[in-house]
Specification:
Blueprint lengths: L3 E6 L6 H5 L3 H5 L3 H11 L2 E9 L2 E13 L3 E6 L9 E2 L2 H18 L3 E6 L10 E3 L2 E7 L4 H8 L2 H11 L4 E6 L4 H15 L6 H10 L4 E8 L2 E11 L2 E9 L8 H15 L4 E8 L3 H7 L4 E4 L1 E6 L15 H7 L4 H12 L4
Parallel strand pairs: 4-6, 12-13
Antiparallel strand pairs: 1-2, 2-3, 3-4, 3-5, 6-15, 7-15, 8-13, 8-14, 9-10, 10-11, 11-12
Helix pairs in contact: 3-8, 6-9
């Protein structure tokens, strides 16, 4: 058998995406387009580690250096996404990539190396693990009618039925043509949550890099955008990494109507699975996703921590409570201007 060779560069090798195709949905999160998106939109510095035997790639690990004046330096796979980390042919290949990542993290002088795995890798280099959140994923039937009749319980059907029969609502799916409407809803919702928003550029770059997969959904009430979602139709699964609704329309069940429409869309695209994203078990968002029939899948965020706590930059950290309340009082135009400069430094 040929020797296994480790490579490191700031550009991916030929055949990177082709190798990842065999890993389906997991591989989608490691595609080289993500490094382009994150570098151009968030100014993250990309690093690629891979292994070859002979001419064939046998393992891959993309990493992004996340750096900012508030939270410091992190090496992450993959920021913004819920999944990343190592994909390789054999356990010994996985181990070698983990070791190379730790060495790279040392050279880059980061606080933490963070690998967002779908399954827990066993390696002595990992000294911290976060599992408090789970992926919430819904198996999809062949038709929306089957989902309505057999997948959704009567209580939720009743919540959907009222806005579904309201002629004042309309839904649109598109790309750049809907981006401004999407972002207005998104920025307003993030301000209301007390969270700095990603910039519009992040979504524009995703649309540019994923022409076949990325799509914007906008729900309108009397012509005004009141809920919106950003969809990625990945191999074997549609995910919705960002979704928002205007709070003053909550009494009209706009959030459930929007999710019903994007689930319909996913089924129409022939997808067998819908990924609602991560949630803390028994939280409000967990229960919202669970009512649709979503099933919890473990998420293993594994770390080699050099200094500080792995939770230092997380929104759930109690030390940010006063800042959250202050942020909620900002004008949306100002939070949208300032927020992207802050959130780009949060891993």
């Amino acid at each position: 058998m040929p020797d296994t060779t480790l490579h490191q560069a700031q550009q991916p090798p030929a055949g990177w995406n082709a190798y990842l195709q065999r890993f389906g949905y997991d591989g989608f999160h490691l595609r080289q387009e993500w490094s382009t998106v994150l570098q151009r939109a968030l100014r993250h510095e990309p690093h690629f580690l891979w292994l070859t035997r002979g001419e064939a790639i046998v393992g891959a690990l993309p990493l992004q250096l996340v750096s900012g004046p508030i939270f410091g330096r992190y090496l992450v796979s993959q920021p913004y996404l819920n999944t990343g980390g190592v994909l390789a042919d054999r356990p010994q290949d996985e181990a070698r990539l983990v070791e190379a990542a730790v060495e790279l993290a040392k050279r880059l002088d980061v606080k933490h190396l963070e690998l967002r795995h779908e399954r827990q890798l066993q390696h002595p280099a990992f000294n911290a693990l976060v599992t408090e959140k789970v992926h919430m994923r819904l198996p999809l039937p062949a038709t929306p009618e089957l989902l309505w009749e057999k997948g959704i319980k009567s209580k939720l059907r009743s919540q959907i039925r009222k806005p579904l029969s309201d002629a004042r609502f309309s839904v649109a799916f598109g790309r750049e043509d809907l981006l401004d409407e999407f972002y207005r809803v998104f920025a307003r919702n993030m301000r209301d949550l007390g969270t700095p928003p990603y910039g519009r550029a992040l979504f524009a770059h995703m649309l540019a890099q994923f022409p076949a997969e990325a799509e914007v959904a906008v729900l309108r009430h009397e012509g005004r955008a009141v809920a919106a979602g950003f969809l990625l139709h990945a191999p074997g699964c549609t995910l919705i990494p960002s979704a928002s609704a205007l709070r003053e329309y909550n009494h009209l069940s706009v959030n459930v109507l929007m999710y019903w429409r994007v689930l319909e869309r996913s089924i129409q695209r022939g997808q067998p699975l819908f990924d609602f994203g991560r949630s803390t078990v028994d939280s409000g968002t967990y229960k919202f996703k669970q009512q649709w029939g979503a099933v919890a899948h473990p998420a293993f965020w594994q770390y080699h921590s050099f200094k500080g706590s792995v939770g230092d930059a997380r929104p759930s950290n109690g030390k940010f409570a006063l800042l959250v309340r202050a942020w909620q009082k900002l004008p949306v135009w100002f939070s949208s201007l300032l927020g992207p400069h802050i959130v780009r430094g949060i891993p």
